[in-house]
Amino acid sequence: MQRILFILLFAASLMGCRKLDQPNTREFTDEAYWRDAQDALDALTSCYENMSNDFFFFGDEALSDNAFVSGSGFSGVSLIAAGSYDPANARVRGEWSYRYGAIRKCNNVILNIDRVPSMDAALKQRIISEARFIRAYSYFQMAFWFGDAPFFTSLISIEESKTISRTSKAEIIRFVLDELAAIRNDLPVNTAYAEKDRGRITRGAAIALSARVRLFNGEWDEVRKECELLINSTENGTYSLLGNYGNLFLPAFEFNSETILDMQYGGGRTFSTQRSFLPQTVALLRSVLVPTQDLVDDYIMLNGKAINEAGSGYNENNPYVNRDPRFAATIIHHGATITDFENRVQTILTQPGSVPATNSVDDQGASPTGYYFRKFYDRTASNYNSTLNLPIIRYADVLLMYAEALNELGTLDAAAWNRSIRLLRVRAGFTEAAATEFPGGSKEQLRAIVRRERRAELAFEGLRILDIRRWKTAETVLNRPVRGIKVSGGAFNRDPNGYIIVENRTFINPKHYLWPVPTFESDQNKNLGQNTGW
Question: Which residue, 103, 125, 106, 130, is CA-closest to 114?
Fold first, then answer.
């Protein structure tokens, strides 16, 4: 805890100025700080920087059955996904220290802002509310990954950090929900911010995050109520789906009507992670973060049927035609084209024996599954360093949460479908009534449809791991091999149907539903205890 909780608030990496994407150029000591409103805004911007990052955003996908990381990249997420990790794992350590870094920064803002003389009361309240949101978000992440966790809202001392015990997960979640309810009316709606403040936390973000936390908690009627605050009224913000799904993930369409909360990039903050998931001939680097065959198989056909349903029209020998349009917007497959950074159109060949072989499964630096991610490819990036904002919550997720909650309540009907799933499918490009109209069926049948829709819409946005853990399906989907494309020959480990087996995974219930307390932390503080099975 000592290393974690006493991260300096005013390090050189502090981001500053009112604009969220500009790096700080001033250095401060605590004694000389809190002189004016700008100091408070600079300190708050540092909290934003610690809310999330691209490394977690992309790496988290490979913790699920949607993706695979080859080697030890993204701080060893492949070890976690395979069930072969321990409390010293780098990703586990990193999550703990990162979240407490954010909590420490937020507590600093909340507890010290009163030192600013003659500050505008409305601005001060807004800053406090933004900091409380980020702190609540950080505690939710701790509860999700670790369950019980150290909890504090003060600037605890080094000695206290060595003796603090863990607070129950239930208490932490209650705190998070109480905070999100308390601050929402002190936050502006999305349309009230000036252009220089775009990207700041809004009332809609507080409501949407509350819905997500309640979804995680299985509070279905409360999820419904929170979502309806955003669906039924503009009082809490004005949101709608962007017309084109693919445009959501391009820099030209940032701050669109669907955005509820993004990670902000630009100015001095960039990321080059796209080099990890693009074909070698595009990124000029080894491809290590790649989609799985299981994800590919879950995209439905244009007629709304799953590929294994009778009458779907799916052809295993021509598997990529007539599929959900979001598939092509998300994943690059054998024979797909992509325009590279030099404005050249490349055809990506992934089958063994392809010429050239650079992107095929034959090449050691290529995708071992035969697929690549297209989503979040930023062709405008300078030297691969993207300034593309990454979504934390978007309005499509609100519609999906709403549909799931209604189904679990037994009230998902044609009218509710038309206000949620149908909107997403029409936006995606489905035109057949069989895909867009309410399918009817039992609660269990509709559950499968809603969950598949959620997977397709939100693929590669880091949410799949949250879903399979809260659904308690991780013990099934992470207890089977990672598969790649179907091949007819070559020195590949294949399943009986000819699909490449990339890795065998193991998930132990209940052990792997929570991460262990990191070794470094438990060595420093014997009061932390350990999670079951670790």
Answer: 125
